[in-house]
Amino acid sequence: MYTGLKHLHVLLVALSVGLLILRAIWLMRGSALMQRKWVKIVPHVIDTALLAAAIGMVSMMPGLNQPWLWEKLVLVVLYIGFGFYLFKFAKSTGAQIAGLIGALACVATIAHLARSKMPFILG
């Protein structure tokens, strides 16, 4: 069961990040595709499923006293914040690129933590 949830989680991460990048490109190009209804709904559905899979995996773990897991949680909140900044507040292309880079840096760090289980700050 855990392995299935893990594979689903990784698939949802790939979809979430891929869609984030695609939407950021559309935003920076001023594409009318950003106004499509599915573009506004699908990311939330994917991210909700992603969160549900993560909660499912954590519920199967022997304890929550794992510093790397708490660092991942903080980085997920930062990822959401960078995405929110990118799509709601960043007005210039430079600011949008900065928001995208911040979000992707969070994802890269989360992936590293998931593989290594070695926290940066709390370790």
TrEMBL record:
Keywords: Membrane, Transmembrane, Transmembrane helix. InterPro entries: SirB. The chain crosses the membrane at residues 6-26, 38-62, 68-87, 94-114. Pfam families: SirB. The keyword Transmembrane helix applies. PANTHER family: PROTEIN YCHQ (PTHR39594:SF1). This is SirB2 family protein.
